[in-house]
Amino acid sequence: MTHAGTTETDHTELKHVLTSAVKVGVMVSLLVFAFSQVARWFDGTVELILHATIIVVGIWVTAILPGVWTRPRSIEGIAGAAGIGLGGTVVYMLIDVAALQPLGTYTNRWLEIGGGSNWWYHPVWWMAGTFLAWMGAFALANQARKGEPSPVGVLITALILAAFVGGGAAVLGVPGATLGLGTIAVALLPAIALTALLTGLGARRA
Question: Structure pTM?
Answer without folding.
Answer: 0.89
